[in-house]
Every structure is written in structure tokens, then in C-alpha cells.
Design brief:
Layout: H1 20-27, H2 31-39, E1 46-47, E2 53-54, H3 57-71, H4 76-85, H5 107-148
Antiparallel strand pairs: 1-2
């Protein structure tokens, strides 16, 4: 008669949390700015019983994305709906979705995003013009430098 051995193994896996200082170091975002993102609802850390903020690995990516959007000039009031939408994926391509899916949505929010899109589009055109002007000037400077460089020693 065969005997069976039952063993119960309980493995407790400690979740890896980081505190705000570590998140700041990893993202290069100042602690003060991370707290601001939390106030605006852009980051939602867990709280320890002691009151310390506990961030997870996903918060690194979220904080980096938020910081990038803020640096590009997008107001935080527009970043929150983007984060909630979960369809924000910079790798999808350059053409934005016009969002016309038949849903009435919030007219004020639509107007805000339309105005922001127009502002960003204008900014891209302006930056492209400036980039081309600088590139042309740089080519001229390099060409002049080559012509004035003495040949032979």
C-alpha cells in the first residue's frame, strides 16, 4: 500500500515597492514634481500604514510618460483623460485618431483637445521651419569652412 505525502508549502513573495526617492532617481523627475503628479491624479501610489508612498514598477513608466507629456507642453488637465483612455501608445504611428466613434462625449473636453491639437500642430510646423533653417545655415558654415581651410602644409 502506497502512502501519500501531502505537504503544504506557503511561499510568501514580497512585493517590490519603491519609495518616492527611488522613483525620483530612476525617472530623473524631482520629488516635488512627483508629488504634484499625485495631487493631480496622474500617479496613484499605494500608501503604507506609516503614510509612506509605495510605488511599483509600472509607476516608473507612468511617471516617465507623464513627465514627457508635461515637457511637451500638454496641460495636466488633458493628460489625465489620456491616461484613463489607455489607448495612448506613442508607437501606434504619427497620425492621431480623430476619436469620432459616434460617442457624444464631453463637448468641453473635445474642444480642449481640438485646441491643444491645433496648438501642437502649429508648434511642430514652427519647429520644423526652425530646424530646416538651422540645418541650411550649418551646411553653409561647413561649406565655407572647407573652402577657407588651407590645403597642403
Amino acid at each position: 500500500m502506497a502512502s501519500t505525502v501531502k505537504s503544504l508549502i506557503h511561499v510568501r513573495v514580497k512585493e517590490r515597492f519603491m519609495r518616492i526617492g527611488e522613483l525620483s532617481r530612476r525617472t530623473q523627475i524631482p520629488i516635488r514634481m512627483l508629488r504634484y503628479y499625485e495631487e493631480r491624479g496622474l500617479l496613484t501610489p499605494q500608501r503604507a500604514p506609516s503614510g509612506y508612498r509605495h510605488y511599483q514598477e509600472a509607476d516608473v513608466e507612468q511617471a516617465t510618460l507623464v513627465s514627457s507629456l508635461v515637457r511637451s507642453g500638454l496641460p495636466t488637465r488633458l493628460i489625465l483623460p489620456l491616461l484613463r483612455d489607455k489607448q495612448l501608445n506613442p508607437m501606434d504611428g504619427d497620425e492621431p485618431d480623430d476619436g469620432d466613434d459616434g460617442d457624444d462625449g464631453d463637448d468641453d473636453l473635445v474642444a480642449l483637445f481640438a485646441a491643444e491639437f491645433a496648438r501642437l500642430d502649429s508648434q511642430v510646423k514652427c519647429l520644423s521651419f526652425s530646424r530646416n533653417a538651422v540645418q541650411q545655415h550649418l551646411r553653409r558654415l561647413r561649406a565655407t569652412r572647407v573652402r577657407h581651410t588651407p590645403t597642403g602644409t
